[in-house]
Amino acid sequence: MTKSKIFQHNTFTTLSGGFYEGTISLAEALKHGAAGIGTLDTANGEVTIWDGIAYHGDAQNHVRQVEADETLPYVALVDHQALKTFTDSSSQPSEEFLSNVVAQFPTENTAYTIVIKGHFKSMTISSKPANNTRPYAEILADQPYFTRENVAGTLVGIWAPEHLSDLFGAGFHLHFISDDKQFSAHTQSFITEDVTVEFGQIAQIEQEFPTDNTSFNQKKILT
Ligand SMILES: [Zn+2]
After folding, report:
1. 16: CA distance to ligand 1 center in Å?
2. CA 36, CA 76: separation in Å to the nearest integer?
3. Model confidence at 223, in pLDDT bands (50, 70, 90)?
4. How far is the CA of 220 from the centre of ligand 1 (A)?
5. Distances in Å between the alpha carbon of 38 and those of 43, 55, 107?
6. Exposed, middle or buried by CB within 10 Å (0-12, 13-18, 19+), for 141?
7. Potential cystine with 44: which of 97, 117, 130, 189 (Cβ 3.0-4.6 Å)?
8. In the chain, what are the domain boundaries?
9. pLDDT bucket at 59, cuts 50 / 70 / 90
10. Distance 129 CA to ligand 1 centre (A)
């Protein structure tokens, strides 16, 4: 069976547990893959990596390319190898659409890489402000949401089963980049129009921690 791989620097839980200091440069991260998700130093905004280019969507809904020397406190890069590909031209809200994707996973206990490309009737994204010091849940509670109608683009990310939630978060973690590269951040919800879905089974995880970083070594990660 075709296998996908994932590289993570830190985990979803080190980020959500309050460690926001950028500890890997984009240049270093890109050695591990050309597609993925993350955030910048201070948990600033949302990073979407596609075709080897990292895009930053900020809390003002502006998108720019991330520079090679900018740092990230959390990033996941996937070597996405499609196990299954299918198209769907129905109009469905994301909750329903994604539960149908999960129903097609052939196994229960591994994570999956996800790429969904095409046209969306609607796409709603969120992004965090810069310079965060508050607990993660507080940041998310008042972060801005942005919606675009009739947008073409790519959703990229992962799905993880409950038992891997400390590593990846539970369920779907998807980021969006529009084809015009003007609309990008963390995906909250969408309505499909005409999309191609690919998923790949994650058979290998390379998990890295910034063990030379004093604040990482001393900070108590809260869960
Ligand atoms: Zn995200």
Report:
1. 11
2. 5
3. confident
4. 22
5. 9, 10, 26
6. exposed
7. 130
8. 4-218
9. very high
10. 13
DSSP string for 40-95: EGGGEEEEEEETTEEEEE-TTS-EEEPPTT-EESEEEEEE---SEEEEE-S--BHH
Token pair recorded at residue 85: 């590909």
Query: What totals of helices (H) and strands (E) does the chain contain, helices first?
Result: 6, 13
- In this structure, whether the domain defined by 4-218 belongs to CATH 3.30.1330.80 is answered with yes
Checking if the pLDDT of 1 tops 80, the result is no
- From ligand 1's centre to the CA of 39, what distance in Å? 7
pLDDT at 61 over 80: yes
Q: How far apart are CA 174 and CA 155, in angstroms?
A: 6
**35, two tokens:** 């597609």
Distance CA 100, CA 79 (A): 23
Q: How far apart are CA 185 and CA 34, in angstroms?
A: 17
pLDDT tens track for 170-208: 999 999 999 999 999 999 999 999 999 999 999 999 999
Contacts of 169 (CB under 8 A, 6+ apart): 12, 13, 16, 160
C-beta separation of 203 from 177 below 8 A: no
C-alpha 17 – ligand 1 centre gap (Å): 14
